[in-house]
Every structure is written in structure tokens, then in C-alpha cells.
User: Which sequence fits this backbone?
């Protein structure tokens, strides 16, 4: 579990995804440089009256304060540090953002910090949010990821197939690149 003194802790985290948990709560998957990938509960987060309404709806960087409960940490405070609203305007950009998050998700263990991967994901989201060409953003993400994990010195002509083969050999997991709309 999370290694912090006391019953509460704070961190900066990227919201990877959230979903309804019971009737009114949200189950949130987060990635932080301090704690790696972890899940938390946002009590009453699915209600329109929630003070955090909209903060956990997709890719964003939040400053969080959490309470360590018996099973999952509970989010007690949250503030927006960076929103990636422009990503949500394009199907292709949001598909690529989820693909990058899936690569991080499948290559890390819960509560295993990897500051390098945090910054790689953050920078990839920033590039997509700025409207960078998807192919260029993907190639840069592939190169940064492989270098961070010690899998490749340079990947100047890296194709999807090359990356997927390296990733499968590294993690034993199969990835499927997103299908993108043409145009």
C-alpha cells in the first residue's frame, strides 16, 4: 500500500480514468510520481452536488489529499493543477491519450513509483492537448517510454509493430493501438 506516515497523505496525480462505484461514489484510477499507479474512492463524487464535480471526468493533473482507509484511499480534497480540455475535442486525440495511459497501466504495478513514467505521460498529454500531430506525439511517447524502461537507445524509425513486439517481450502483455478516424 502507500508508504506515508500517518493516516493521510497528499500527492500530485494524473487522473487516468474514473467510473461509478456503488450509487454515488466514484472509483478513480490515478498515477502519481510519489506513489505510482493507485486507485482511490471519491465519496459522493458521482452526484451533481459534489464539490469535485467535473474534476475527475478524464485526463487532468490534480493536487490531492487522501485518507488511508482499510481498503482504498479516500479522496478528501482535490484541486485542479492542469486540465487537458483540448484533448477531449478530438476523438483521435482522446483515443491516443487512453492508449498512452493503457501502456503505463500495463507496464506498472500498483503503488510502485516511477517518476520518469509520470513525466512521460504528463508530457505526452501536454503534446496532445497542444494539438501536436498524433503520429509525432506517439513516436515521441514510444521513444521516451522505451528509453525510460531501458529497452532501446534510439528508435528513430519505430513503427507500431516494432513497439508492440518490444512491449510484449518486456511485459508479456498484448496492446492494441487505437483505431483512429481519418482526416
Assistant:
Amino acid at each position: 500500500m502507500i508508504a506515508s506516515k500517518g493516516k493521510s497523505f497528499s500527492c500530485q496525480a494524473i487522473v487516468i480514468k474514473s467510473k461509478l462505484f456503488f450509487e454515488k461514489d466514484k472509483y478513480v484510477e490515478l498515477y502519481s510520481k510519489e506513489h505510482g499507479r493507485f486507485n482511490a474512492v471519491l465519496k459522493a463524487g458521482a452526484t451533481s452536488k459534489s464539490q469535485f464535480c467535473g474534476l475527475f471526468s478524464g485526463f487532468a493533473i490534480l493536487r490531492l489529499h487522501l485518507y488511508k482507509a482499510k481498503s482504498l484511499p479516500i479522496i478528501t480534497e482535490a484541486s485542479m493543477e492542469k486540465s487537458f480540455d483540448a484533448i477531449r475535442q478530438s476523438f483521435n486525440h482522446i483515443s491516443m491519450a487512453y492508449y498512452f495511459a493503457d501502456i503505463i497501466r500495463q507496464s506498472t504495478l500498483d503503488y510502485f513509483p516511477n517518476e520518469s513514467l509520470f513525466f512521460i505521460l504528463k508530457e505526452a498529454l501536454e503534446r496532445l492537448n497542444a494539438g501536436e500531430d498524433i503520429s509525432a506525439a506517439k513516436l515521441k511517447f514510444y521513444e521516451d517510454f522505451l528509453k525510460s524502461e531501458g529497452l532501446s537507445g534510439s528508435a528513430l524509425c519505430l513503427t507500431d509493430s516494432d513497439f508492440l513486439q518490444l512491449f510484449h517481450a518486456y511485459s508479456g502483455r498484448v496492446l492494441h493501438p487505437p483505431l483512429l478516424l481519418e482526416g
Summary: Residues 86-171 form one domain. The chain has a mean pLDDT of 88. The chain has two domains: 8-83, 86-171.
